[in-house]
């Protein structure tokens, strides 16, 4: 037993954070100037492809980065990806890699009976604005939580990522029950990250605004890859961001301008292959990559109208098959096109059937008893304290 405690002590010392420095990224510093300041090869930046270079712009002043005991530098770039830089020596060169950030996941639960204002009372119990956003997302903004009255209630089961004690990203709601004016509204998360009620009906999102941007591909579509800050690239065999949406379709399928604007790039663009970039109003740019060919007559400076064909789907550049990589940028920063593209209203509500429905019902039955238990105990909510430090209600 004594040897066991000695071993634990050694492990504790070896993994102790005293062997790493926590520093703050300074204002005006770019990755390139950072490499120069730390006597690291600038080739680490120049050898990155265009999409990874764009990702480096996500590093913001004031964020924390770390220097480990062995002088390895770790810089979180997004909530999911980090840069790891290892300084070389006479035998090996400096090395930069993009790796997923390791997280621990805490699970919380909460039952709250409304007294006056649900959002204020939920925040008072958890100090998490993210939980309120997650609850709205679980019902795809179909429930007006600000109109809930005294006696209404919410029951929530959720999880939250934590890194070095700090809450990362918004919480993810696994199951919830809203009782409003004595009516019950359930929401359950499925494996494909969509929410359904207890009978398998999907909560469809209704947009309250008109978007000036249309989908660049007509007809039936298949999204082969969505926007993400962490994706394992099938060709490069490493993690990287995917700053756009991939629409898979046949070579030669017409590609249309998402909105009117002016072409500011037409030509080859690294891994994007044949590519067109259009400047729109309000600081928005759209990018169309991997084209097989451009439409004749278009050049840099050409003005295009919304829906005009600008090129055709192909597989040029770094591509696994014919598709359009469609990206959008706001003031130079990549944004998720799905948030901007106009979506047609669906006439019929989506319902789960077959195996998917049976899986959902198993989830519903699993949580049925849990809902009752939490409504008696009040649950074990996660609490975000000063500095975004995350704890359970019991302080663990």
**Biggest sheet descriptor:** 10 strands, antiparallel
Radius of gyration: 25 Å
CATH topology of the largest domain: Nuclear Transport Factor 2, Chain: A
What's the tally of helices?
7
Q: Give the N-to-C terminal Cα separation.
A: 26 Å
Helix content range: 10-25%
Overall strand count: 24
Stretches with pLDDT under 50, minimum 5 residues: 1-19
| CATH hierarchy: architecture of the largest domain | Roll
Count of discrete domains: 3
Structure description:
With 396 residues, this protein is α+β, with helices and mostly antiparallel strands. It folds into three domains: 15-100; 104-206 and 348-392, Nuclear Transport Factor 2, Chain: A, CATH 3.10.450; 222-339, Glucose Permease (Domain IIA) (Distorted Sandwich). Helix content is 19%, strand content 36%. The strands form five sheets. Strands 11, 14, 15, 16, 17, 18, 19, 20, 21 and 22 form a ten-stranded antiparallel beta sheet that branches. The chain has a five-stranded antiparallel beta sheet with strand order 1-2-3-4-5, with no helix packed on it. A five-stranded antiparallel beta sheet has the order 6-7-8-9-10, sandwiched between helices. It starts with a helix and ends with a strand.
């Amino acid at each position: 037993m004594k040897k066991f405690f000695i071993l634990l002590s050694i492990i504790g010392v070896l993994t102790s954070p005293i062997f790493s420095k926590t520093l703050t990224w300074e204002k005006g510093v770019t990755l390139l100037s950072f490499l120069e300041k730390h006597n690291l090869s600038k080739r680490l930046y120049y050898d990155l492809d265009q999409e990874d270079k764009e990702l480096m712009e996500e590093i913001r002043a004031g964020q924390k980065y770390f220097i480990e005991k062995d002088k390895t530098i770790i810089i979180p770039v997004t909530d999911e990806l980090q840069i790891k830089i290892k300084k070389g020596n006479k035998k090996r060169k400096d090395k930069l890699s993009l790796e997923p950030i390791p997280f621990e996941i805490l699970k919380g639960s909460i039952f709250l009976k409304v007294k006056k204002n649900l959002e204020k009372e939920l925040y008072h119990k958890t100090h998490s604005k993210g939980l309120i956003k997650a609850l709205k997302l679980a019902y795809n903004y179909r429930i007006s939580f600000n109109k809930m009255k005294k006696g209404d209630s919410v029951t929530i089961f959720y999880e939250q990522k934590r890194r070095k004690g700090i809450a990362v990203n918004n919480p993810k709601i696994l199951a919830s029950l809203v009782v409003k004016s004595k009516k019950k509204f359930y929401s359950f998360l499925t494996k494909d990250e969509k929410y359904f009620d207890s009978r398998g009906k999907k909560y469809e999102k209704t947009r309250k605004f008109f978007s000036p941007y249309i989908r660049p591909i007509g007809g039936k579509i298949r999204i082969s890859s969505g926007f993400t800050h962490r994706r394992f690239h099938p060709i490069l065999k490493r993690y990287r961001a995917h700053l756009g949406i991939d629409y898979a379709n046949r070579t030669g399928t017409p590609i249309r301008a998402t909105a009117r604007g002016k072409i500011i790039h037409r030509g080859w663009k690294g891994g994007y292959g044949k590519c067109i970039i259009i400047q729109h109003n309000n600081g928005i740019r759209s990018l169309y990559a991997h084209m097989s060919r451009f439409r004749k007559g278009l050049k840099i400076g050409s003005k295009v109208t919304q829906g005009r064909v600008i090129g055709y789907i192909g597989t040029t550049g770094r591509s696994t098959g014919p598709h359009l990589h469609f990206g959008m940028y706001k003031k130079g920063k990549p944004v998720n096109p799905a948030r901007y593209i106009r979506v047609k209203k669906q006439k019929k509500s989506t319902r789960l059937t077959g195996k998917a429905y049976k899986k959902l019902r198993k989830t519903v039955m699993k949580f049925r008893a849990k809902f009752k238990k939490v409504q008696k105990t009040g649950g074990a909510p996660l609490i975000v304290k000063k500095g975004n430090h995350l704890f359970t209600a019991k302080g663990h």
